[in-house]
Backbone:
């Protein structure tokens, strides 16, 4: 091929915000590219069409933007020596959550994701498992496989950590117990990351960036002191960053800034029960097909909770989230 297109390429968006995006081309080059104006006005329209059916009447679609993990076609920008993204290829999956701070619409955390790795610390900061449930529901609502990583086990010992997070093992989630200080659990984590695109998410200060630095020396992600990141309300990691894994198998990990609150995704309330894997086997046995598992007689979910097969804490999360979803007015999104 000759002419101006011979340096054009296909690549993956590793990071960036609004203006310039870092794109890794198929041949391993990393280029800084801007979005063509056309794509800015009509952001990721093709990708939006490929997404699952939505209830928001398309209002949020206009706010869809290029995200880390997107596959793009880029070419030299005739206006200068730089590069321009000319096309965003359809997404095969994505992790989306509600825009923060009470804003309407959704935020695409990353595109073309294989699994969500929800990181919590066993202490410092204190783990709020009801918040963990929200992270997991968001992964399930996006139809993504999820895992739990319980970090900082050097602070409590492994037995206490197992006790605090046993509900998640019972629910069927793979749970990893790690310490970046001592190296516990890192080999198993490295094995489950290989060849896949994984998004690390969780509260601020739990050690997401520290884990990635420990797993992949040379990542050089900024790590903060918890006193700064939590008490002063400042996050250490700003914006999502995607790292290509050094191993031969390939794969990527996405480091994201910690979240203080987790806004529910625009999920219909009647779909929430499916987002709790341990509830799924019981759903077909409720007396009423549209059982909300709150007040109905003959509810197989409530019976499973009463028998101790489903954890009370997880069921309480279900009830709390169900209430929130019923109150939310998604038509305004
Ligand atoms: N004791 C202990 N401390 C850890 C461990 N892993 C990380 N830390 C500490 O926890 C603090 C926060 O680590 P970060 O990696 O910045 O946390 P983060 O989750 O990336 O935080 P945000 O970027 O704000 O979301 C740092 O002081 C780390 O040194 C661990 O396994 N044990
Ligand atoms: Mg971080
Ligand atoms: Zn029921």
Residues:
């Amino acid at each position: 091929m000759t002419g101006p297109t011979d340096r054009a390429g296909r690549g993956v968006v590793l990071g960036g915000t609004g203006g310039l995006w870092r794109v890794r081309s198929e041949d391993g080059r990393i280029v800084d590219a801007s979005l063509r104006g056309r794509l800015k006005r009509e952001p990721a329209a093709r990708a939006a069409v490929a997404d699952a059916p939505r209830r928001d009447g398309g209002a949020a679609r206009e706010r869809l933007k290029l995200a880390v993990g997107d596959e793009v076609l880029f070419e030299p920008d005739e206006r200068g020596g730089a590069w321009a993204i000319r096309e965003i290829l359809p997404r095969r999956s994505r992790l989306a959550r509600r825009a923060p701070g009470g804003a309407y619409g959704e935020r695409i955390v990353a595109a073309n994701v294989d699994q969500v790795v929800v990181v919590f610390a066993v202490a410092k900061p204190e783990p709020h498992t009801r918040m963990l449930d929200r992270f997991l529901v968001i992964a399930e609502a996006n139809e993504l496989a999820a895992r739990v990583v319980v970090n900082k086990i050097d602070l409590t010992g492994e037995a206490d950590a197992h006790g605090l997070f046993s509900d998640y093992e019972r629910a069927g989630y793979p749970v990893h117990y790690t310490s970046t200080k001592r190296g516990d659990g890192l080999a198993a984590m490295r094995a489950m990351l290989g060849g896949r695109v994984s998004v690390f998410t969780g509260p601020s200060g739990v050690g997401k960036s520290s884990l990635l630095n420990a797993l992949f020396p040379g990542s050089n992600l900024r790590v903060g002191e918890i006193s700064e990141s939590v008490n002063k309300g400042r996050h250490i990691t700003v914006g999502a960053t995607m790292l290509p894994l050094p191993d031969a198998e390939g794969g990527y990990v996405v480091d994201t800034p910690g979240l203080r609150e987790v806004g529910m995704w625009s999920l219909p309330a009647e779909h929430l029960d499916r987002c709790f894997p341990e509830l799924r086997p019981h759903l077909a046995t409720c007396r009423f097909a549209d059982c909300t598992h709150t007040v109905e007689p003959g509810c197989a979910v409530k019976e499973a909770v009463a028998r101790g097969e489903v954890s009370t804490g997880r069921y309480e999360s279900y009830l709390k989230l169900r209430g929130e979803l019923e109150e939310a007015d998604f038509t305004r999104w």
